[in-house]
Amino acid sequence: MAAAGKVSTFRLPPLPTIREIIKLFRLQAQKQLSQNFLLDLRLTDKIVRKAGNLRNAYVYEVGPGPGGITRSILNADVAELLVVEKDTRFIPGLQMLSDAAPGKLRIVHGDVLTFKIEKAFPGSLKRQWEDDPPNIHIIGNLPFSVSTPLIIKWLENVSCRDGPFAYGRTQMTLTFQKEVAERLTASTGSKQRSRLSVMAQYLCSVDHVFTIPGQAFIPKPEVDVGVVHFTPLTEPVIKQPFKLVEKLVQNTFQFRRKYCYRGLGMLFPEAQRLESTGKLLQLADVDPTLRPCQLSLSHFKSLCDVYRKMCDGDPQLFAYNFREELKQSKSKNQKKEAHQESNGL
Ligand code: SAM
């Protein structure tokens, strides 16, 4: 009988180690798929601790591979763990874990980029956006080539309150190349400040919780790995559509060493560039000689609000793409030159 006042907790029974699982099921990492495994259960436990209190939580693990993080999540006494893994080779090893944790682990062979998590957990877990986050957590150590496009997709989902955020302000704990983790969390004025910093921080509170040295992985990647925790904000700093913010921020950072008016100017057709950029900066009250990395979230908020008004006043403006204009004017010049040559001019 459990001692009075003690709550019984779930622990996995003794199992072969992850190293043994890798041998048993011949799960050699495929370098071309950037598979780097974490075998040290102290590290996987640490990632899971940083996700928060998972007791009775519903957890969505992306890319479980041989199951190191998966074991730590199960040992955190969760209500349910849903894993989505693309590589079929890992399914039998995960099945073994599922047998050891009856009713707790659901395995999906699928692609995290297309999997519809918004239908996977009970609707009763949904919370109002302004409430505390729901008892749902996303955790994952994915290949770097997947984690960056995925976080952009999920940030758009945060902005639209759909996908994993149909349940409310679902928290995420994900790994990135250390340099990307630093960009995600970089503050105004820092060297690493970039498009990703603004896109993540206008929607979420973002923490680089710790760094895992490359040598902790097998095989060892070229770089160290940053673990980043995201909690969506109750109110985004910028209340404009994601695509509009993305366009403005992307344009701003494309000339990252120049004054900000250079990149912002590319939002406007050449014929009106000077005038419209001046108007944008003046109405947003932003100094044109600040560098992109010196712009704060509140600068970006003002810029996006003014740009939105300019787009509302000129329905063609949002679709404008300076690269298209450049291409068209180049091909016009080429045709003109060819015409002049054929006329012997
Ligand atoms: N989480 C394990 C660990 O920490 O040891 C494995 C990490 S390994 C870097 C990435 C895992 O993500 C691999 O198992 C790989 O097959 C899986 N994966 C890659 N792309 C995926 C995708 N689009 N959807 C689901 N799983 C994916």
TrEMBL record:
Keywords on this record? DNA-binding, Methyltransferase, Mitochondrion, RNA-binding, rRNA processing, S-adenosyl-L-methionine, Transcription, Transcription regulation, Transferase, Transit peptide
Q: What is its EC number?
A: 2.1.1.-
Task: Tell where it localizes.
Answer: Mitochondrion
Q: Which SUPFAM superfamilies match?
A: S-adenosyl-L-methionine-dependent methyltransferases (SSF53335)
Task: Show where the Ribosomal RNA adenine methylase transferase N-terminal domain sits.
Answer: 43-234
Give any single GO term for biological process: transcription initiation at mitochondrial promoter
Major localisation: mitochondrion
PROSITE patterns per the record? RRNA_A_DIMETH, SAM_RNA_A_N6_MT
Q: Give residues annotated as binding S-adenosyl-L-methionine.
A: 36, 38, 63, 85, 111, 141
In the record, the note on similarity to other proteins reads: Belongs to the class I-like SAM-binding methyltransferase superfamily. rRNA adenine N(6)-methyltransferase family. KsgA subfamily.
Alphabetical list of NCBIfam families matching this protein? ksgA (TIGR00755)
Q: Can you say what this protein is called?
A: rRNA adenine N(6)-methyltransferase
Question: What organism is this sequence from?
Answer: Loxodonta africana
- The gene that this protein is the product of is TFB1M
